[in-house]
């Protein structure tokens, strides 16, 4: 499945102050895509989903889509290249570029050298993704007062 909910208590605790942020979730696996979107929404995020690189490219290329604070992308998309989505996000004008790219994959070492050179902040997460780690990363950006 690719996503592990290892911190069920995070859903039961009241959220911090409302923080508006947006994420685009790019994942070809239906269950993983919807689970990631649901987890992000439950954490105070507006989450839009894309089935693969082509759909994500169309969304990122549409100025009406606005800016996504986070791009959550599976680098190992079936039939397409998730790294291409990251390259497209990195090429967006600064006002529309995501603050952070959260790249998921099984063989991250294959992608790292290419992503490092793009000039965009990329955080790599090995699958299966531990949701608590994702929350910690997002909270560190969206809720600075919660930082240790």
Describe this structure in words.
The chain is an alpha/beta fold and 148 residues long. Helix content is 38%, strand content 22%. The chain has six helices and seven strands. The chain has a five-stranded parallel β-sheet, sandwiched between helices. The longest helix is centred in the N-terminal third of the chain and has 13 residues. It is globular, with a radius of gyration of 14 Å. About 7% of the residues have low confidence.
- The low-confidence runs, each spanning 5 or more residues with pLDDT under 50, are 4-13
Report on the biggest sheet. Answer: 5 strands, parallel
Report the count of strand segments.
7
N- and C-termini, Cα separation: 32 Å
Q: Any idea what the radius of gyration is?
A: 14 Å
Which strand order does the major sheet show?
3-2-4-5-6
Instruction: Return the structural class.
Output: alpha/beta
Question: What level of helicity do the residues show?
Answer: 25-40%
Taken as a percent bin, the fraction of beta residues is: 15-25%
Number of helices: 6
Q: What is the general shape?
A: globular
Mean pLDDT: 83
Q: Which helices and strands appear, and what pairs or packs with what?
A:
Blueprint: E1 3-4, H1 9-12, E2 21-26, H2 30-42, E3 45-50, H3 53-61, E4 70-74, H4 82-90, E5 100-105, H5 108-116, E6 122-126, E7 129-130, H6 131-142
Parallel strand pairs: 1-7, 2-3, 2-4, 4-5, 5-6
Helix pairs in contact: 3-4
């Amino acid at each position: 499945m690719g996503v592990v909910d290892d911190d069920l208590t995070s859903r039961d605790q009241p959220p911090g102050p409302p923080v508006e942020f947006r994420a685009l979730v790019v994942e070809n696996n239906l269950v993983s895509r919807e689970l990631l979107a649901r987890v992000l929404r439950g954490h105070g995020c507006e989450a839009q989903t894309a089935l693969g690189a082509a759909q994500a490219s169309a969304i990122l290329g549409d100025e009406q889509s606005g800016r996504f604070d986070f791009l959550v992308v599976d680098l190992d998309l079936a039939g397409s290249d998730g790294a291409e989505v990251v390259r497209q996000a990195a090429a967006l004008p600064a006002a529309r570029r995501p603050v952070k790219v959260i790249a998921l994959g099984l063989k991250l070492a294959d992608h790292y050298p290419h992503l490092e050179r793009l000039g965009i902040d990329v955080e790599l997460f090995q699958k299966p993704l531990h949701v608590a780690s994702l929350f910690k990363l997002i909270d560190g950006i969206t809720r600075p007062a919660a930082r240790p």
